[in-house]
Amino acid sequence: RAGSVFSFGAAVNILDGTWRATEDTRLTTVGQPFRGEGSAKFRYSGLAPEFGVRVELPRLQLAARYLPRFELEVRDGTYHAASVEVPSQPRVVTDARIADYDLAVPAAMSAGLAFRPFERLLVGADVNSQKWSKGSAEHLQRITGPFSRGGRLPLADVTSIGIGAEYVLKRMSWGEIPVRAGFRTVPLGFRDVSRSDVELVFAPEDTLQTQLLDIDHTGTFHGKEVEANGLTFGASLRSGGYSWDLGIETYTYDYHKWFFDVPFDPLVNPLASLVRVERTITSIRISTTHRF
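^ thats the sequence. predicted structure below, dont judge the formating
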């Protein structure tokens, strides 16, 4: 703290963990379910510093945070996928190793305000911005392909806006229990696939006039930018200089993928059809803080 109004802070976040994902694909036609599955895993590590400043007035707080650009090491990645199993059709199974790479995470900035209309209620809003178009990846092995040209990632800049409120539900002589709820936009930084990403042509030399597919491998798609809306909930137990916190966030978005996972196939996807996929992600965070 610097006086009664200004506060400054800094932190070094030690990032170390494993990212895992699984996918279960189910397709039902005329009562017969067909299934596919997939999974991915990699290990990450890095150091991420951040800096903040806060201005505290009697009923109003203003704050800002800056997260500088940092490097994230991604190692030991694996990928597995098995296409939807259709009778009398071959099943495509892919087992691969994800190349090790260093991810340059671009700088991010946040600013927000909080207002306390009365003693037990706090309402707030914030805006967060990160220029993901400046993110890049450097592979440790020699990699060729659309996502490795110049190391630049095919991502768009993102800006999210959040609003929320906290209410002290109960106060005791030794502590208090506040509850929270909020809403935020969740732009995901990439564009959806669209019909304009492929071009169906005919082969004149083929007497059957088989349709061929010319895929535009630019490393990005031309559909709308995918964006979700998130709902957040939380509760805390505060006593003395300690705080135990629970936070839950869930957000849903939709995107498109090729029917049967193939842009064109004369048997299973002759019209190069797209299907709409709805995805819901829920995050749970448990943390504790000690102030002294």
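Residues 73 and 102 are 5 Å apart (CA to CA).
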